[in-house]
Amino acid sequence: MTTTRMPLTEAQSNRISGIQSSELSSAVPKVADPGDYGRIRDVLARANYSEPGVCAALGIDNLGRLGDCKLPALLRRTSGGTPLETLVRAFVLGQTVDLQAVERAIAPMTVAEWREIGLITVTGSSVLGRLQIRCYQGLIFVYDFPRRGHGGLPQDYVMGVSPSSLVLAGMTVRNANGATLDLGSGCGIQAILASPHSQRVVGVDCNPRAIGVTQFNSRLNGIGNVEFREGDMFGPVQGEKFDLIVSNPPFIISPENRHFFLNSGLEDDEICRKIVKQSPQYLNEGGYCILNANWAVLEKEDWRARLAGWFEGTECDGLVFQQDTRDLGDYAANLIEVGNDEETEYMKIFDDWMDYYARRRITGIGQGVIVMRRASGRRNWFAVEPAPANITYPSGNDVQLLVRLRTFLHSLPNEKDLLDVHLKLAPNVKLDQTCESSGGSWRQVSGRVRRVGGLEYSGVLDGPSAAALVQWDGTRPLKDYLTQLSASMSTDLATLLPSAFPIICRLVEQGFLIPVEA
């Protein structure tokens, strides 16, 4: 699970007075009366404490931009004293707020009730939120504030709705499933998002606090088909089968083993390799395993070949969406956890990380999303696909489409069999043209096709190819269209094929062209 240090959260940490990080992090919310879950939801609803409401109060268009904002501006925007502003200050900005303002904001519930549940700490006439409360897609999640005491975040820190969480949620294939497994549940976001399209969901985490937080979140959202089990990896689900496995594991590659949410205790990228190797025995035929991953780029080794090796013998097809390859120094600097005023310790740990990478021959850290589909009884395929610059969530349908398209291409006995396939232009493809003035009219100088929505791949296409592509409606086989295109280019089909085939295959692989047969 990756974390991003945001200026806002550092500012929050510096403004917490008289409260120790260890005291706050020990909070596991519990209710004595199950009716309190509904009463908490009612309090938040009356205050308009929702994703749109919170964004409006903070003056931002989405909560993902919160880290780009400065605390003084956010405090000024939430200074009106309304119940919504009070709750935002306490449970989003992590600030101490006036006791009487909280009493008004959570009425008819009481401060004593919220303190007993474990949502707040009261000191004199001041109240501090012990846990964040985040709204996402009509759901409510509580999880830890990133408050750093001595040594940084506590070992049992429970990560919430993070950037990596949203990437995984956005790229998950959401078919109607009998059973779904969330491996490394954290605050439970993946398990809870899977509940509407699954008959049952099991969430597993080795952090006891995470199990307590996830159970609270599932009940707070009225989810009845999710259960959470404490344990490591697949241990708690031995002998069970699932149609979908999702995982945002502790994939950080480092010499440390201090945090449940960051460190697996295994060398290099072994945690991700183990999930790839072990998940097939828990997958039903046709089921998907989708996980966020970091992988080591080793000196004088092809990392693509290393990842392909993970899939050998799994009886799964594999598609890796590569997001980035990180510089080691930047990677370590963003992920090392120390207290706010421990610069000397920070530099020592930084050197330890860099020495570790040198010993392990690691030259970079790859990042991406690994997609597996159980497909036994045939020769499986593996591919690495650079993630597009723009992705619109949800994109799970596109992920599934690209897996199916590669499976289709892989099923063809040889390349020339593609000539008999009926291909049609996908309905979400657009053409952008750049023109220049020439003799009193516009002359196209370049063109770019792009997919709109989901995985928004794009590519340069010349004028004749673009004019031909728009006519491909699936009514005729590919060879007919290519014969027509070659005639317009004053060449013959045999001459055109060597350059056309790779382009057409890429257009299929990235979802621009769809085989009617598929």
Report on this structure.
The structure is a single chain. The protein is of the alpha/beta class. Helix content is 36%, strand content 25%. The protein has 19 helices and 19 strands. It has helices spanning 7-14, 21-25, 35-46, 51-58, 71-77, 83-91, 99-106, 111-117, 163-171, 189-194, 208-220, 270-278, 303-311, 328-335, 343-359, 396-411, 463-469, 478-488, 493-509, and strands spanning 97-98, 120-123, 126-129, 131-136, 139-144, 177-183, 198-205, 226-230, 242-247, 283-298, 316-326, 362-374, 382-386, 422-425, 429-438, 441-451, 458-460, 473-477, 513-515. A hairpin with a 6-residue loop joins strand 16 and strand 17. It is globular, with a radius of gyration of 26 Å. Mean pLDDT is 90; it is low at 1-24.
Q: Would you identify the regions where 5 or more consecutive residues have pLDDT less than 50?
A: 1-24
Mean pLDDT: 90
Tell me how many strands there are.
Answer: 19
The protein's oligomeric status is single chain
Kindly report the spatial arrangement of strands forming the biggest sheet.
8-7-6-9-10-12-11-13
Rg, Cα atoms, Å: 26 Å
Distance between the termini: 35 Å
Q: Considering DSSP H and I runs of 4 or more, what fraction of the residues is helical? A: 25-40%
Summed up, the helix count is 19
Class computed from helices, strands and strand pairing: alpha/beta
User: How many strands, what sense, and barrel or not for the largest sheet?
Assistant: 8 strands, mixed
Shape estimate: globular
Strand content: 15-25%
